[in-house]
Amino acid sequence: MPTVPSLLPHLAALFHRGVQRQEGNGTRWPYIEPTPPAPGMVPPAGVPGSFDAGVFRHAGASHTYKLHLPPGSLGRRPLGLLVMLHGCGQDPDDFAAGTRMNALARRQRLAVLYPAQSREANRHGCWNWYLPQHQGKQGEPAWIAALTRSLVRSLHTDSRRVFIAGLSAGGAMAATVARAYPELFAACGVHSGLAAGTAEGVIDALAAMRSGTRCMPRGAHRLVPTIVFHGERDETVHPRHARHLVDAALLASRPGRKSGAADPAPSTQALDHDVGSRILYRDGLGRLIAERWQLDRLGHAWSGGSAAGSHTDPQGPDASAQFLRFFQEVAPSPRTVAQALATGPTRLRKLAVPRSVADSALAA
């Protein structure tokens, strides 16, 4: 029987085939809380519109990342933070180029954070979503959440508009982090990934990716609204995992509900040009719980991405734009809430708006 170490290259190869990793641009690495910046280094949040490199120290280890601040944010705090987790073999520069998320997030004045997986933690650059020591509030989820909280504080951004998304192994880790820290993230986006708790080891992960099976995570968890993109031609991660991700969100939407109980009736919209369908899941008040894009012609790639990055399909619907639209709907900015208040209570009820956000919009 093959050993676990011997299976690691096969797991990584399933996630990542032929991706050319871009080299860094020579930027020096600054330090943020709790370690002060080293002399002569530029803080990562220093220049609006830039894409700065940084290092974060947590539990005795150093973790690299890149941060994009929206232009025009000098003297104005960002209206939220989006955490983007790359896939195997990628890095923040590659993932940002392929998703074009920095340019699109500017429209909502979101800062975008790209944590980087080190080759020491995983020689293929994969997030270790399938290992028990990197599930729950420990390991990689712990330092990603700690970095996110540190930047929310240092940027003075709206803590109610913090989101997380990822591709493939990054998508699986995004789901894992969101499940572990639902108080931190308002919504989650998973592209070609897997649900939290799908595997508890390399062999489990390989089986799940190929067949679409999953383990049910133990313990109750809070709802984090989730948008899922997955291609029906994905030969790396079985398309069945898109439904597993939605099932996890539906299960969390009703505390005490058992698996197999009646789900909110979904609505299905056929996409133009026969590319697939968009399925919406709402609660009894009409608020969006989950959204699944089933794309018939897509393989294991970021839909609607740029050829400037790896693992993208420029021909598909724009996943980046749809993720941001979903995030705005489930956790709208105060300006959006104020506009909804002006149009009447019906529109406001369809927004998943905490009372505090509505009150702040009224006071603005």
SSE blueprint:
Layout: H1 4-15, E1 51-58, E2 61-68, E3 81-85, H2 92-99, H3 101-105, E4 111-115, H4 139-155, E5 162-167, H5 169-180, E6 187-191, H6 202-211, E7 226-231, H7 240-253, E8 267-270, E9 276-282, E10 288-295, E11 302-303, E12 312-313, H8 319-330, H9 334-343, H10 345-349, H11 355-363
Parallel strand pairs: 3-4, 3-5, 5-6, 6-7, 7-10, 11-12
Antiparallel strand pairs: 1-2, 2-4, 8-9, 9-10
Helix pairs in contact: 1-6, 4-5, 9-11
In brief, what are we looking at here?
With 364 residues, the chain is of the alpha/beta class.
Please count the helical segments. 11
Any idea what the CATH superfamily of the largest domain is called?
A: Alpha/Beta hydrolase fold, catalytic domain
Q: Report the strand count.
A: 12
Report the uncertain regions.
1-7, 16-43, 353-364
Average pLDDT: 82
Structural class: alpha/beta
According to CATH, what is the class of the largest domain?
Alpha Beta
Q: Do you know the CATH architecture of the largest domain?
A: 3-Layer(aba) Sandwich
Order of helices and strands: HEEEHHEHEHEHEHEEEEEHHHH
Helix coverage percent = 25-40%
Stated plainly, the CATH topology of the largest domain is called: Rossmann fold
What percentage of amino acids are in beta strands? 15-25%
The biggest beta sheet is recorded as: 10 strands, mixed
- Largest sheet: spatial strand order: 1-2-4-3-5-6-7-10-9-8
Total tally of structural domains? 2
Radius of gyration: 20 Å
What is the molecular shape?
globular
Quote the distance from N terminus to C terminus. Answer: 65 Å
